[in-house]
Design a protein that fits this description.
2 copies of one chain form a homodimer. Chain A is of the alpha/beta class. Helix content of chain A is 41%, strand content 15%. The relative contact order of chain A is 0.12. Chain A binds a DNA duplex (16 and 16 nucleotides) through helix 2 and helix 4.
Chain lengths: 355, 355
DNA sequence: TTGTAAGCGTTATCAT
DNA sequence: ATGATAACGCTTACAA
């Protein structure tokens, strides 16, 4: 087989100019019916199935592709209900714009030549959960002049952000817990950074948190409970909450009466750990989450949590990209979480005085 | 601001040829350190951040992007645990190959100019759950000479397929149910086609099923229970199973003693419907699923089901694409499901004779 | 190690 | 309604 036919071949065989043939396929200008028929017939005969998208996108300066960069391994992202809900809204918003979604990882393995924000043929980028490490790649994208929108992250003041009132919502949960009489509190946090460290956090480590969501929620909680014990999880998974919960409930004398988890999945794990330790929720220990998703395996419990508008966040990001691509300005949007009191928090138990 | 700097501008300003500048960025040939430094410095000065991916991909003939086409709306796909598991394996396999994943819908709305298999700058395509409608688009891709792999679908004999032994596994479940003494059976199927019709199916409709998974599993079941009542669901969701279950359990006189659902989610819905109708599972009615995923809200039940290797399926598809891109042949693979007996199937209840 | 030159396949512009 | 032509920005033989 010879080389693939091009639009020039088709044009020549049909006895028209390349521009006419091009127009037949793009429909961007009127063409005589007879001419179109002929071109199409010739194209079919040559096995030409339409313009090469690579060439078209070079010429047009648009590829019709928007990158969605995730901080973590894609496998992890798909497991996170909040991310999928956000993606859902996002793909919706982008579809209206006529763009496809290219899934990208923030940090492709060094050796791999997988596409990155800097090397992929994209028209714009949406970063989900952008933290420090992403900054320099981001710089490359921005200096290419491509629109960038950030969901739950910080990429500088001139990059539109779609974010939550994480601090306020976390504080609201904390207030609720304090109003119930709790004084011995533990916080189970989302990851501090890419390092996936697990366990009790020192003040220094807390000061060095690079993940904006983690630090905003933590600040909200600590504003109410400055002395809370802080334990970080390596990712937002039930199993991670389980591990953290086991740590917290290991010593009956020092265990908290309430645990504030930074995600519903973590909270579900903490609850499981509590039950494993023979503690009743909420009679012996209260547990609160964050996100407002449906969690598997919680049984009859309804989590006390902050419900976030995840789909709307994604859709708003898509809309912002569309606007920027159209040359307009796009503003940051701050979404509001809704506090939901469930059945997993209750009055603080009365401590037995040490006789 | 003037037009964006190109590699030619950089080369000129650095006093080298374009090819040298190109090599500095691609690293495909040795360059004197001094030269590289100079080029890089000049590039930085001009705000040049590397080759335009669109131009590079035209020249190279590769874009580094593989399309993953889903039949349904992305939102729906993400809700399906099997699809996410498959995507998980797939993105893994493709990452090794160094390709990005472009999420595509099979059937973009007519008005939208969203990219399609025919118009996106892709190097290959993976179709998940390809049914009839996708065929013609597919034709365009194949005649562009791009590798195509299909997961759970049929795109012609020369397109490698990653599939399950759906028929055998379904038959195995049916045998299990029959061995328990059941004779009054209902099947709750996955969608027949894109139409999302719901309810009792006529033989004609059954004959016209275009979704391969649905028809393969159904044939397996009918091979054991030729007279089973067949009810189709509009999609693989717990709520759909619930709707189907309500239909089945509406009339105590005609209700089946066992329901074979084509997915675990549907089975979970059927179980919920049974409990809603005051029926105990499995004492009054047995329910079996398909997939082997963890389902939310099943309580203490362990579903009797066929466990499929979803992640492996995806990864194998990624590997197949890699092989085809390397010019090798890729063969179809048929994965085997594992029957798992749970607690949702039991002996058929003894019918009260009508006195 | 660096330079020359020839495209990659398309589409926008401007005539005709 | 159609045609001629010039980019779009880069890469890679091949030559020096």
């Amino acid at each position: 087989m010879r080389r693939r036919a091009t639009i020039a071949d088709v044009a020549r065989a049909a006895g028209v100019s390349p521009s006419t043939a091009s127009v037949v396929f793009s429909g961007k200008a009127p063409v005589a019916d007879a001419t179109r028929e002929r071109v199409l017939a010739v194209a079919a005969g040559l096995g030409y199935t339409g313009p090469d998208p690579r060439a078209a996108s070079l010429r047009r300066g648009r590829s019709g592709i928007v990158a969605v960069a995730l901080e973590e391994h894609l496998r992890t992202a798909f497991l996170d209900p909040i991310k999928t809900a956000t993606m859902d809204g996002l793909t919706d918003g982008l579809a209206e714009l006529g763009a496809g979604v290219l899934l990208l990882r923030d940090d492709p393995e060094a050796g791999s030549d997988a596409p990155t924000l800097a090397t992929a043929p994209i028209d714009a980028a949406v970063l989900i959960g952008c933290s420090g490490r992403m900054r320099e790649t981001l710089q490359a994208v921005r200096s290419r002049g491509l629109p960038v929108v950030v969901i739950e992250g910080d990429a500088g003041d001139d990059v539109p952000r779609m974010e939550l009132d994480n601090g306020e919502a976390a504080a609201q949960i904390a207030h609720h817990v304090r109003a119930l009489g709790h004084r011995d509190i533990a916080v189970v946090t989302l990851p501090f950074d890419g390092a996936k460290v697990r366990g009790d956090a020192t003040p220094e480590r807390i000061a060095s948190i690079t993940t904006p969501v983690t630090s905003a929620r933590l600040e909200g909680t600590l504003s109410v409970f400055p002395d809370a014990r802080v334990v970080s999880a390596a990712s937002s998974l039930i199993d991670e909450g389980l591990i953290a919960g086991r740590m917290l409930f290991a010593d009956p004398l020092t265990r908290p009466t309430a645990v504030i988890a930074q995600s519903d999945l973590l909270a579900a794990g903490v609850i499981r750990a509590a039950e494993e330790a023979g503690l009743r929720v909420p009679e012996d220990v209260s547990v609160a989450g964050f996100d407002g998703i449906a969690v598997d395996g919680l049984g009859e419990h309804v989590l006390t949590t902050a419900v976030q508008p995840a789909v709307e966040k994604g859709r708003a990001a898509g809309d912002a990209v569309a606007r920027m691509l159209a040359g307009e300005q796009a503003a940051s949007i701050r979404f509001t979480c809704t506090f939901r009191e469930g059945t997993t928090t209750g009055p603080a138990p009365v401590r037995q005085p040490l006789s």
